[in-house]
Write a structure and sequence with these properties.
- The structure is a single chain.
- By secondary structure, the chain is mainly beta.
- It has three domains: 37-157, Cupredoxins -  blue copper proteins (Immunoglobulin-like); 166-304, Cupredoxins -  blue copper proteins (Immunoglobulin-like, Sandwich), CATH 2.60.40.420; 331-489, Sandwich (Immunoglobulin-like), CATH 2.60.40.420.
- The protein contains six helices and 31 strands.
- The strands form six sheets. It has a seven-stranded mixed beta sheet, with no helix packed on it.
- Bound molecules: CU-O-CU linkage and copper (II) ion (2 copies).
- The site of one copper (II) ion has 4 residues, from strand 5.
Length: 490
C-alpha cells in the first residue's frame, strides 16, 4: 500500500477539486458503507499543567497541543485516515498499539515505513477490525518521545453500541520531573536501562495529578484504563468498590473480579472495567496504586455528588462484551517458537540470565561503585535468544523467525531475568494459554503479556497478517537496550 501518494487526496481535497470542475476525468468513487473518518495529529512541543495552575508549567511534546493527545474514537469496521504532521525537531512515527492492521501502517521506522522527518507528514490508513481500548504513541526515539508526553488513547467503538451509563477513559502517564516542573534529562541511563527502567515521580490521569473523578451514586461506568508509562508497573485498588474486568488489551474476556481486588497494569496494557458506583452520595473514595510495596500513593479520587442514587438496586451482573473477530489458533497443527529473555543488571558485567532478586528499595539505595554495568554507553543490557537488537525501529532488522501465512504459532516466552517485562507483539493478539504450566483461570487475548521474574508464558496466534512485526518489552529502556526482536510472516 502506498499511502504517501494518497496523502494529498484527502476527502476535503477531493471535493475541492471536484467543485472546481477539474475532476472530470477522475473515476467515480464507489459508494461505501461508511465514509472514511479523517483525522489529523500534529506532534509538536507544548506545555502541560499537571498539578493545577499554581504550579510551574511543564514543557512537553504533545499531539495537537495536549497531554495526553486527543482521544481518538473510531468505529469498528469503519476506515480511518489519520495524517500525522511532524513539528518536532527529530524524526517520528505513530504506532497504533494493539490494532490489527496492514504492516505498512504499523509505524515502525525502517521496518514498516520511512521515518517522518521534521516538517513532513505521513497518512495512516486502516480499518480497525476489533472494538476495544487501544492507544497510540511514537515508535521513533520512543524512550524520549513517549517520556516527553507523546501518547493518546484510541477507542474503537463496537459496531453495535454497548450500553453503560458512562464510558470513561483514564490514560495513565508517569513523569520523572526535576526542579521547576521540568522533565528530567538523562534518558537511557545505564541504571534505568539495566534495571527497572525509567520509573518517574509523578503519575497523571489524563494529564492531571491527583485527579478527581466525579461520579453519581448508582451509575454503572465503563472505565477504560491504559498504562502509557515508560516503565512503571501499576496495581490499582478501588477503595469501597468492586471492579469487574470486562476486557484486557482491548479484547473482551469473561467478566471477572481481579485477584485480591487489584488490577495489575504493566506499561502498554489496557484493562476495561465495569464500576458500579455503590458508594454513598457525597462520599470520596481513593484509587490507590500499590504495585511497589513501600511506595503506595493515591492515583485519583472518586468524588460522589450529593444526588440520591440513580437506581435503588445495583443492576444485574454485566454481560460479556461482544467478541472480536479473532482467528482461532489450531493448536494441534501449530508451529512452535520460543523466545528467551536474557540479561539485566546482576552478573559481573556480563549479560546475566540469572541473579539475585533486588527490590525497588534495595535498588534505590544501592552503591553502584565498582560494578560493571551492562547498558553503559549504549551497550546492550538485554537479549532475546542471545541477540540484542537495540534502539528503536531501524533498517535492516533481520527476523528471528519466519512463519508461513495462516499457520498457528505456539509461542513460549521464557523470562530468565530477575526483572518484570511486559512483552508486546505488534499486529496480532495472543491467546494466552498458560503461565508457569498452569492454564489461566479466564481465557485471555492480549497484545502485551506481563512476565514476572522467571515466568514462562505460553500463547498462540494465527499468523494471518503478512509482514515484518516487532516483538519487544514495553519498558522503553529495556527495548532500547536489547529486549526487542522481529519476526516475519510470509
Ligand atoms: Cu506500543 Cu512497539 O509498541
Ligand atoms: Cu504495538
Ligand atoms: Cu523489560
Amino acid at each position: 500500500m502506498n499511502s504517501r501518494s494518497i496523502r494529498f487526496l484527502t476527502r476535503r481535497g477531493f471535493l475541492a477539486v471536484a467543485t472546481a470542475g477539474a475532476a472530470m476525468s477522475l473515476p467515480l468513487r464507489p459508494a461505501r458503507a461508511y465514509a472514511v473518518d479523517e483525522r489529523t495529529l500534529r506532534a509538536a512541543p507544548a506545555q502541560a499543567q499537571f498539578a493545577g495552575p499554581d504550579r510551574a508549567p511543564t514543557p512537553t511534546w504533545a499531539y495537537n497541543g495536549t497531554v495526553p493527545g486527543p482521544v481518538l474514537r473510531l468505529r469498528q469496521g469503519q476506515p480511518v485516515r489519520i495524517t500525522v504532521e511532524n513539528s518536532l525537531a527529530e524524526d517520528t512515527t505513530v504506532h497504533w498499539h494493539g490494532i490489527r492492521l496492514p504492516n505498512a501502517m504499523d509505524g515502525v521506522p525502517g521496518l514498516t515505513q520511512p521515518p517522518i522527518a521534521p516538517g513532513a507528514s505521513f497518512t495512516y490508513e486502516f480499518t480497525p477490525p476489533d472494538a476495544g481500548t487501544f492507544w497510540y504513541h511514537p515508535h521513533a526515539d520512543s524512550l524520549v518521545q513517549l517520556g516527553r508526553g507523546l501518547a493518546g488513547a484510541l477507542i474503537v467503538e463496537e459496531a453495535e453500541p454497548v450500553a453503560f451509563d458512562r464510558d470513561l477513559i483514564w490514560l495513565l502517564q508517569d513523569w520523572r520531573l526535576a526542579a521547576a516542573g521540568r522533565i528530567a534529562g538523562g534518558f537511557g541511563s545505564a541504571m534505568d536501562a539495566s534495571m527497572s527502567g525509567r520509573v518517574g515521580n509523578l503519575v497523571t490521569v489524563n494529564g492531571t495529578a491527583q485527579a478527581v473523578q466525579s461520579v453519581k451514586a448508582g451509575e454503572r461506568v465503563r472505565l477504560r484504563l491504559a498504562n502509557a508509562a515508560l516503565a512503571r508497573m501499576m496495581a490499582l485498588r478501588f477503595e469501597g468498590h468492586r471492579p469487574v474486568i470486562m476486557a484486557i488489551d482491548g479484547q473482551p474476556c469473561e467478566p471477572h473480579e481481579p485477584e485480591d481486588g487489584r488490577l495489575v497494569l504493566a506499561p502498554a496494557m489496557r484493562v476495561d472495567i465495569v464500576l458500579d458506583m455503590q458508594g454513598k452520595p457525597g462520599g470520596r473514595y481513593r484509587v490507590i496504586d500499590d504495585f511497589y510495596d513501600s511506595l503506595a500513593y493515591t492515583l485519583a479520587t472518586l468524588a460522589y455528588d450529593k444526588a440520591a442514587p440513580l437506581r435503588a438496586h445495583p443492576p444485574d451482573a454485566p454481560a460479556a462484551l461482544p467478541r472480536n473477530p479473532l482467528p482461532e489458533p489450531d493448536l494441534a497443527n501449530a508451529v512452535r517458537q520460543e523466545i528467551v529473555l536474557q540479561g539485566g543488571m546482576m552478573g559481573g558485567g556480563k549479560l546475566a540470565g540469572v541473579g539475585g532478586m533486588m527490590g525497588m528499595s534495595g535498588m534505590m539505595g544501592m552503591n553502584m561503585k565498582g560494578m560493571t554495568m551492562p547498558g553503559m554507553n549504549g551497550t546492550p543490557a538485554w537479549a532475546i535468544n542471545g541477540v540484542s537488537m537495540t534502539g528503536d525501529g531501524h533498517a535492516g532488522m533481520a527476523p528471528q523467525f519466519t512463519l508461513r501465512r495462516g499457520v498457528t504459532c505456539h509461542l513460549t516466552i521464557r523470562n530468565e531475568t530477575a526483572w518484570w517485562h511486559p512483552m508486546h507483539v505488534h499486529g496480532f493478539s495472543l491467546s494466552v494459554l498458560s503461565r508457569n504450566g498452569s492454564p489461566l483461570p479466564h481465557r485471555q487475548w492480549q497484545d502485551t503479556v506481563l512476565l514476572a521474574p522467571k515466568d514462562t508464558v505460553e500463547c498462540a496466534f494465527v499468523a494471518d497478517n503478512p509482514g515484518d512485526w516487532m516483538l519487544h518489552c514495553h519498558v522503553a529502556d529495556h527495548q532500547m537496550a536489547g529486549l526487542m526482536t522481529v519476526f516475519r510472516v510470509t
